[in-house]
Specification:
The structure holds 2 protein chains of 2 kinds. By secondary structure, chain A is an alpha/beta fold. Chain A has 9 helices and 10 strands. In chain A, strand 4 and strand 5 form a beta hairpin. In chain A, helix 6 runs parallel beside helix 7. The longest helix of chain A has 19 residues. Chain B contains 16 helices and 4 strands. The chains are: A alpha/beta, B mainly alpha.
């Protein structure tokens, strides 16, 4: 079923049309228009509180929007039926900073939670989940001989290993759009390199990605397009080829200045 | 002198089987306790009648502890179950006396408990009131309702003596009280729900972090309403066992259960922080709590000491569990205590 949805020709994996989100009186997002191609890596940048996390949470069904429309593979989304589970079914995967794994739970649960392999009474086939989890750990993630297996709890893993688990999960469920929320924050340089390699692999495998990143050098080098968010609005769409890293930095500093100017 | 034998490498102990036997510490405590009782009061504890009475009195409390284990696994608490015992017990007694239909009474008791659970779950999950607050409130409300409906009177149900329902829920099988089998059955079902069912996994993730649970696609509202409904239904069942055991209903019958049932869960090693829980632990925790009372009296210690000893056992069990779960914390404590001179 999912096979037919994803193989059908479509132009944009996801497209937002005048999407707005408000929390009470606070407008977190205002009239966002954003389209992401089927094999495009989009870097999302912006200051803390610019609305990056709210935007991806809306795209993946965690937060419902206040107004606006969303198209997935060019088909309009019915908000009443849109949820994280629905987004999973549509092959959207999110690798959240810190928030996508249950700390005290073993990895075999973390890989499959929300999509457990069960019999028809809802009982989990633990042995099968454990076997697949071990396979992903060893084959796809190279966690060999580091004392981590399907029964390890997340609490025992390093920051890089955690990102690896979340990424491995996205790969296993064969996502078409992978959203990475600051995956390299607080990682050692060696581990950062692993994560960046994975983002390249997303591109190479024909998938799309939204990549939120504070480190401008990383996004500038990787993304096909950079989208700059500021106070809930998209203020710039930049092709890295058209703007050097130095110019991009200056641009963002200027943006910061106008913000301070506006506040004064 | 004999020379040294051939050196075989010690077979590597599989760390998983060594560590993961669920509830092992509390099982050891349980058998040590039995040993102590036998040592101090052999005339009582080497004979069947005391165990028979344990197997009658412990099951209702144990069933409550088992439900609470799921509630606490999800990082919630339910303090309203004594009110469920009062109201469901009344429903059972009333339907039994008025319509002479004890099976319908059993159904009414379970449905009434489940209804209280739905209301709790709705207020907690949808309105967003912390469970400790709301279940204190609903506890007052429903036990008040039970008192109003029953007029504060107790109901005798002597007519149920010798009936099928009494035989099945409160009779004996092979000389063992049937309550014990029901409690064991509930324990097995709850173990499978928590450890093997999708619902239990959702509860564990909700208890671990509600934010993570939401992000991985768990419907945290629906699952928490289901949780409190199940807890209410178990309370209703426990109420019927309790009422049948005494063959009478009195509106205050759940009141002594609050602390005992909670204590059983924590003695068993379930963490108050949510995200992990042990059904086996709660099972033995309930046995320990249920035995201490009678056991201590039988050993000849004055009855006044019972609560002191229960308190000691409780605190040492909880400290023991922290030490086992997180040895680093104990080491840290040692360092802090002994380095500062």
């Amino acid at each position: 079923m999912a096979e037919t949805t994803s193989s059908r020709a479509y132009e944009h994996i996801v497209r937002a049309d005048k999407l707005s989100v408000a929390f009470g009186k606070v407008r977190a997002l205002s009239d966002i228009d954003l389209a992401i191609g089927r094999n495009e890596i989009v870097g999302l940048i912006g200051d803390n509180g610019a609305g990056k996390s709210t935007l991806i949470k809306t795209l993946t069904g965690v937060i419902p929007p206040t107004s606006g429309r969303l198209f997935i593979r060019d088909q309009p989304v019915d908000w009443a039926n849109f949820s994280v589970r629905r987004a999973h079914d549509l092959r959207f995967e999110t690798v959240y900073q810190e928030k996508s794994l249950g700390e005290k739970q073993p990895l075999w649960r973390n890989f499959f939670v929300g999509r457990q392999i069960t019999n028809r009474f809802g009982f989990i086939k633990v042995r099968e989940q454990r076997r697949i989890a071990n396979e992903i750990l060893q084959r796809q993630l190279g966690f060999r001989g580091v004392g981590i297996d399907a029964d390890s709890t997340v609490a025992k893993l390093s920051g890089g290993e955690r990102q690896g688990i979340a990424i491995g999960r996205a790969m296993h469920f064969d996502a078409d759009l992978i959203i990475l929320d600051e995956p390299t924050t607080a990682l050692a340089i060696k581990e950062v390199q692993k994560v960046l390699d994975f983002v390249r692999r997303i591109k190479a495998s024909g998938r799309a990605a939204i990549y939120i990143e504070h480190n401008l050098a990383h996004v500038h080098a990787l993304a096909d397009r950079l989208v700059v968010l500021d106070r809930g609005r998209i203020v710039a769409n930049i092709r890295p080829a058209d703007m050097s890293l130095a110019d991009l930095t200056l641009f963002l500093i200027d943006l910061q200045k106008t913000k301070i100017g506006a506040a004064a | 002198m004999s020379d040294t034998p051939l050196k075989h490498p010690a077979p590597a102990l599989n760390p998983r089987t060594a560590v993961k036997l669920e509830g092992l510490p509390i099982i050891i405590v349980f058998f040590v306790l039995i040993g102590l009782f036998v040592g101090f009061a052999p005339t009582v504890f080497l004979h069947w009648p005391i165990y028979n009475s344990f197997l009658v009195t412990i099951p209702p409390m144990m069933i409550l502890s088992l439900g609470l284990t799921l509630v606490i696994a999800a990082g919630e608490i339910d303090l309203s179950f004594p009110a469920v015992i009062a109201l469901s017990g009344f429903l059972f007694a009333y339907v039994t006396r008025t319509y002479d239909a004890p099976w319908l009474g059993l159904l009414a008791a379970i449905a009434g408990g489940a209804l209280i659970g739905v209301v709790n779950g709705f207020l907690i999950a949808v309105i967003g009131i912390p469970s400790i607050i709301i279940t204190i409130g609903t506890s007052f409300f429903w036990s008040g309702i039970a008192t109003v409906l029953s007029g504060g009177m107790s109901y005798t149900l002597e007519r149920l003596a010798g009936t099928a329902i009494n035989g099945i829920l409160s009779g004996t099988v092979l000389g063992i009280p049937s309550e014990a089998f029901w409690a064991l059955g509930v324990a097995v079902v709850v173990w499978f729900i928590l450890n093997r069912h999708r619902f239990g996994e959702h509860l564990l993730f909700i208890g671990d972090s509600r934010e993570v649970a939401r992000v991985v696609g768990i419907n945290t509202l629906r699952e928490r309403i289901k949780l409190f409904t199940l807890m209410g239904a178990l309370g209703g069942f426990a109420a019927v066992l309790l009422t049948l055991e005494n063959l009478s209903y009195f509106p205050t019958q759940g009141q002594g259960m609050l602390l005992s049932a909670l204590a059983a869960v924590f003695i068993g090693g379930t963490s108050v922080f949510g995200g992990t829980a042990t059904v086996v632990g709660s099972f033995f925790g309930a046995l320990i709590i249920g035995m201490l009372d009678a056991g201590i009296v039988a050993t000849g210690v004055a009855g006044f000491w019972v609560e002191v000893i229960v308190g000691l056992v409780f605190v040492s069990a909880v400290v023991l569990h922290i030490g086992i779960d997180d040895p680093a914390r104990i080491r840290q404590l040692q360092r802090r205590l002994f380095s500062k001179t």
